[in-house]
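Backbone-to-sequence.
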């Protein structure tokens, strides 16, 4: 390995010859990328450890890690567990260059200039694509990251192997569009006991996550031009999936009692569907009050509308007893219940579920055959055993205690070190909480600076529907802070970095 890498972090000049210095991680990214493409760094060459390279260049380790993550995601570097980061053997830019050199350059040029015609559906969806950075490995304070060190992956591996020791026909030739019967039985039993959901196994449909559940719902129940009401603020992934259907997605404000049900009558036409997170608004953490739950059910019945209850992390409630589901109050079969295992277990499991009113089962069963069939039958079998053997409940209880301690620790850090800058918003559960910015900081600017420092801190204003420059002065300024995925020492260190950034930002 080379001993000197100072040349990999060059200064930059603009076309006028003026020296400019881009953001640190971008500067390092461009330096490494250029060295790879011009051959100064060879395919398969090992790069120094992030800590060593940071010391050599006089920059923070987070800057190096962020640059490595970006290069890895784009295919310039590859990571080998226990060995470090290496220059990729096949490089994206070099491959593209070779294609243009060996092909008909005239035709390629014409192809490149040809207008790309995408469907209206895709165009509507891409308007809501993620505005947050993507890190290969989750960074503090990502709000959706569970503690992966706390998950029993050895046990999970044994359950996967068990499924294949004597696989039945449902694993080798899955033919039920609703999913593996054993898993649906276990999910129904868990939901009845823990969430007060009124359901049987035949109402459960296994999906690859909450996003797919919403896509199926939109396909089945929404025509172009139909109004769908969503919470404001809310998760943009929900809006994107629904907008792709051609629906008119209209945002309904959320206050301290949850979604303003009284404003559902103010939509341009009666809403076909309302999507809500009654247990915990995302990201605020606000709970939909009982009075509003009953009012929403009455509204749905009166307007022949559907309610989609997204119950994304209700397992983690730290203050007071667990809340019952909205679906459990429904006597008119207007609620479609959506759940996921990504936050309770690990994101890569890619399993979730729908609880369907019985009238919708035939349509969803038939439609599923034209979508993706049955997701990951082996993982379904392992998850069914994880439930049946009592591991799921044990894991939830263990992580609830751990997350509660981390939540309290982060709250104490704010109270002790940043009470004049951050105010904690009320929230009784979940993997994150929100804070208001007291000192007049711009949360988008803070988010950008924290990303540069390797912190995945989210700006609260970015979750609101109308982010136009005209409306921006009306948006609350705050930070969304996830705490679940990091131990107390990591939270303390990362919070110190957060405070330093805030102190240096006007």
């Amino acid at each position: 390995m080379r001993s000197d890498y100072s040349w990999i972090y060059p200064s930059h000049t603009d076309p006028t010859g003026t020296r400019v210095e881009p953001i640190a991680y971008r500067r390092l990214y461009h330096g490494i990328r250029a060295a790879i493409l011009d051959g100064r760094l060879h395919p398969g060459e090992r790069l120094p450890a992030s800590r060593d390279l940071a010391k050599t260049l006089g920059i923070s380790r987070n800057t190096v890690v962020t640059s490595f993550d970006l290069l890895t995601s784009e295919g310039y570097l590859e990571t080998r567990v226990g060995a470090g980061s290496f220059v990729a053997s096949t490089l994206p830019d070099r491959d593209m260059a070779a294609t243009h050199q060996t092909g008909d350059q005239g035709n390629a040029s014409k192809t490149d200039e040809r207008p790309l015609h995408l469907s209206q559906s895709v165009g509507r969806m891409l308007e809501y694509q993620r505005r947050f950075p993507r890190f290969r490995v989750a960074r503090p304070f990502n709000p959706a990251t569970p503690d992966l060190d706390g998950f029993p992956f050895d046990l999970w591996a044994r359950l996967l192997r068990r499924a294949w020791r004597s696989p039945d026909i449902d694993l080798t030739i899955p033919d039920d569009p609703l999913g593996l019967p054993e898993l649906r039985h276990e999910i129904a039993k868990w939901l009845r006991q823990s969430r007060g959901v009124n359901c049987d196994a035949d109402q459960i449909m296994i999906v690859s996550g909450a996003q797919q559940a919403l896509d199926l719902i939109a396909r089945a129940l929404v025509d172009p031009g139909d109004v769908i009401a969503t919470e404001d603020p809310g998760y943009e992934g929900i809006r994107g999936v629904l907008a792709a259907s051609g629906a008119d997605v209209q945002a309904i404000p959320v206050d301290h009692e949850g979604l303003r049900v009284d404003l559902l009558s103010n939509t341009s036409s009666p809403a076909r569907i309302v999507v809500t997170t009654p247990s915990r608004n995302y990201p605020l953490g606000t709970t939909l009050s009982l009075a509003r739950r009953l009012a929403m059910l009455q509204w749905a019945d009166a307007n022949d509308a559907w309610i989609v209850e997204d119950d994304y992390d209700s397992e983690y409630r730290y203050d007071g007893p667990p809340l019952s589901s909205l679906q459990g109050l429904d006597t008119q079969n207007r609620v479609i219940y959506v759940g996921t295992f990504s936050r309770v277990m690990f994101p890569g499991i890619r399993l979730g579920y729908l609880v369907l009113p019985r009238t919708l089962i035939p349509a969803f069963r038939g439609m599923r055959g034209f979508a993706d069939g049955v997701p990951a039958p082996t993982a379904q079998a392992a998850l069914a055993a994880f439930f049946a053997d009592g591991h799921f409940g044990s894991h939830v209880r263990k992580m609830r205690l751990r997350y509660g301690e981390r939540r309290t620790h982060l709250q104490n850090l704010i109270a002790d070190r940043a009470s004049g800058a951050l105010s904690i918003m009320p929230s009784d559960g979940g993997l994150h909480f929100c804070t208001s910015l007291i000192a007049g900081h711009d949360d988008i600017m803070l988010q950008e600076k924290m990303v540069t420092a390797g912190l995945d801190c989210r700006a609260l204003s970015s979750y609101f529907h109308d982010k136009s420059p005209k409306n921006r002065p009306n948006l609350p300024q705050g930070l969304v802070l996830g705490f679940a995925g990091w131990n107390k020492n990591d939270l303390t260190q990362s919070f110190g970095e957060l405070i330093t950034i805030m102190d240096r930002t006007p």
